[in-house]
Each structure stands twice: as C-alpha cells, then as structure tokens.
Amino acid sequence: MRAAAGRILLIEDDRSIALIIGEALKQDGHAVIHRTDIAGRDEALKSADFGVMLTDVMLPDGDGITSLRSVRDRAPDLPIIILSAQNSLDTAVRASEAGAFEYFPKPFDLDEVLLATNQALDRTMRSAAAPPQSAAGDLPLHGRSPAMQGVFRMITRVMNNDLTVLILGESGTGKELVAEAIHQLGARKTGPFVAVNTAAIPSELIESELFGHERGAFTGAVTQAIGKFEQANGGTLFLDEIGDMPLRAQTRLLRALQSGRIRRVGGRHDIAVDVRIVAATNRDLSPLIAEGLFREDLFYRLNVVPLILPPLRDRMDDVEPLALHFLRQAEEEGLSRRVFSSEALRVLRSGEWPGNVRELRNTVFRLALLSRDTVIEADLARQAIGPPDRRQSLEGDNLFSGTLQRWIDRHRPAAGSLYQEAISAFERPLFEHALTVTQGNQLQAARLLGINRNTLRKRLGELDIAADRYARRI
To answer: In 3D, which of 423, 425, 452, 449 has the Cα closest to residue 438?
Structure first.
C-alpha cells in the first residue's frame, strides 16, 4: 500500500535509525521533518501540520509517550506511531492507551513501519484522552523477546473490545496470566474475572459448574447453585483447557455463546448474561475436530482472535529477566534474599525448560529455599534443573564449546560423521547470525565470518537463505 505523499514528523534521537527511516519515507515521496527531542517536536508542531508522527519513547528530554498530552492538545487527530526499545507489556499498553495508531518494538521490520505510516496517512485518528495510570506494570507478564512483543501487541489490540480470544500454548506458558491481562487492562476490569479449568471438573458436573443448577435438579442438588457464567456477569469468563470439555457441555456452551443466554440445569427459564469469553488450550484442536471430539462450530466461535503464546524455548532471551523477577518474588513471599551468580544465570539460560515459565518459577523458588549462601552458585543451579540427562555442560567460559558439547550429548553422532553433522547443524544459524548483525550485507558478513564473499553467496544459495530478508531490519 502506498499513500499519497504527505508531511511526516519523525522524532528519533538515534541518528542511524532516523536516517534509515527518513530515507525510506522520502523514497515513497513523503516530506520528512526530523527532530531528536520533545522540545524540537513541539516547535515543529507549532510551525506546520503533519499527516503522521513517528516517535521514539526514551528521548533526551523526556518520555515520548507521557509527553503526548501536549501533542493531543495541539493536534488531536494526528496519527502517532510509537517506536520503542523499552519492550515491555507496560510500554505496549501505554502506547495503546495514548491512542497510538501503531506500536513497534525495536528491532522492527522497516517494511511494516512504512506500511503502517502509509495507512496512517490515509485515515484520521479520533481524539485520544490523556492516558490513565496503567495497571500493566503490576501484571506478572515479562519478556523482551520478539516472541513476547507479539503477544503484548495482540493484548493491546483485544483489551478494549469484547471479541472472543482463544489462547494457544503449552502447559506452563502463562495462558491464564494473559487472560487476566486482557481483563484487567480492558473495559471490563471493574467486573469479575472468573477462571475455570474444564479439565479438572468431572464430566458429569461440568454443566452444573458452568451454568448452575436448580434445587432438586439431580441427586445431591439440595440448594440452588449459581454457575460460572452468572458469576462472571459483567466481566470475563476464562475457560482453560477447553479442548478437554465433554461434547455435551460443548453443545450447551455453543448455545450460550450464540444467544448470550444460559439455563441452569433443571431450570425452566433462560437467563441473559453479559460475559466476555477468553478460552485456552494446550492441545491442537484440529485432530480433536477430525475425531469428532470437539465441535467444529464451537471452534469457530472461540477462535475469533487466536493468540499464540510461545514456549520458553522460543524466548530464551527472557530466561534471565524472568529468573530475576521470580527471585524478587520469592523474597516478597518470605524467603531469604538471594542473588544469582553470573554462572548460575548461564546455567538457567542453558536449560531446556519443558515445563516452560511455570517450571522456571518453581526452580527459582527452590533455589532460593535451598541455597545456604546469599549468592546462588552454578553447581546448585545445575542440580535444580533436573536429572543428569537434562543437565547442561558448562565447563569453561567458551559459550560455543558448551553449545557444541550439548549438541553432541543430545544427538550422539556416529563415529566418523561428527564433522559433517556438526557443520550441517551449526552452519545455517551461523550464517543467519552474520546476516542479522550486518543487516544483510553479504560483503560485511563474509568479512565477519572470515570467508570469501563468493563462498558465502554459494552456501547461502545451497542453504536457501535469502540475504535480503535481513537487509531492512533495524
């Protein structure tokens, strides 16, 4: 999409980033005014009208989001795109609450920024009120990895509407925390948040649990009971492990979602309920649908907005900040104050974590409990990670040697094949790392690797690695 040429205000104190964005916008025919701080931004807004503003958050003279109040006073309909290296849920939420047209964590894809800029130029934003104090900082969702940035951005997109969300992710990834964040940050935050694990309720009781029952509806129903739907009226109902729900209950759930009304077990009258549904599962629902164990029509009702929560192995950059957060949490919950040694953190970063964030949290709490010294050392961390076949070798300070040893231990290549198998395993990520560092410049990547450029180009072709994929990522 290419918008008509417009005047763009770019606020960015990193001159290299500003140069790249500015030149790309100029190539699209736009006029770009560049300023490096809030004072320069405000002066520019006094002297000219702009079609869109792109702004960094951390500027030399203040916070680019907090200071948007003066921008809104002067240009209430100006679309604002926020760029930030402060990659937290709090920043994403603050950007959304400030009425940002779009939010991009750094590093970002330049093509996506250009597309959003052109889209912003073609429409007028509604006036946005000054942002209230965000509650996001109190939510136990942490992560600066690209995978979690996508989750944060999706939360900000769904929190202020009532669309049904289906959270997909392995056990221990924090699906309920995401559901709570959607509730607490949205318009329903003053209403109840009711969570129910459908896998933990006996099949014969799940309908009563969800919809309630009347006195005498079945043996043992000596009083009337209010179900989870009614308890969540005006708020959010979180249905965890929805893939384990019995078919009969699925049918009643579908009817409730379609009509906005429920009927208690043994009841004669429908009851209107105003509930937002957030569901979650750690199972792939497609095979269950094919086997007739999950209703396809219910899946489409629930899968309005799918939100995929990454496993910890896909966000290993988050292990250290998560571990530090859990260590502070352990102290707040009464355990003695502890700190990690750098080697202990390296051990944690090397773990496999099949139990995901939940396993990491439990491990950190266990370390805080078992450590007799203030400093948690690497040996104790190795013991806490698990049985010997899951411990990682970290002898020496050479990170590559440790990585290679872990690969050998895991794959156990046959005698005589170690060289070829190791080259096959490590060559692709090595080339991809070099292209990432050099932003797709093959000559610089070849120099970094210490090989001939033609050799690099030949191997990239054989490995089907497109260098231009990395060229516009800043």
So the answer is: 449
The domain 159-310 is placed in CATH, from the list 3.30.70.420, 2.130.10.10, 2.50.20.10, 3.40.50.300, at: 3.40.50.300
Please give the Cα distance from 313 to 319 (Å, whole number).
9
Level-2 CATH architecture, domain 313-390 = Orthogonal Bundle (1.10)
d(CA 131, CA 144): 23
Q: Which of 347, 14, 12, 321 is nearest to 144 (CA)?
A: 321
Q: Taking a C-beta distance cutoff of 8 angstroms, is the pair 15, 3 a contact?
A: no
For domain 413-469, give the CATH number: 1.10.10.60
Low-confidence ranges of the chain (pLDDT < 70): 1-5, 87, 123-140, 386-419, 471-474
pLDDT tens digits, 169-213: 999 999 999 999 999 888 899 999 999 998 888 877 888 889 988
Rounded CA separation 297/251 (Å): 10
Query: Which pair of structure tokens corresponds to residue 276?
Result: 């937002």
CB atoms within 10 A of CB 328: 13
